Amino acid sequence: MMPPTDKNHGCPVVPPDLLSNLPENVIDAIVIHLPLRDAVRTSILSKKWRYNWCRLPELTLDQALWETTDNVISPTTRFTNIFYHLLTIHVGPIIKFTLAIADLGNCPKIDNLICFLSRNGIQHLVLQFPKGNLYKLPSSFFTCFQMRHLSLHNCSINPPPTFKGFDKLVSLELCGVTIHSRHLESLISHSPLLEQLVLQSSIFYHVQIEAPKLRSFDFKGRIRFISVRNAPLLAKLSLVNGGYSEKAGIRDTTKFIQSFHALEHLHLDYSSVRFLANEVSEKLPTALNCLKRLHLGISLVEQDVVSFALCLIRSSPYLQDIEIQAYERFNPATSDVMNEILGLKSVEVEGFSDVTLNHLRAVKLKGITGTKPEMQLIKLLLAKSPMLAGMLIEHGRGNKSLEARLELVTELTKFQRASPKAEVVYKGS
Question: Which domain holds residue 52?
Answer without folding.
Answer: 24-56
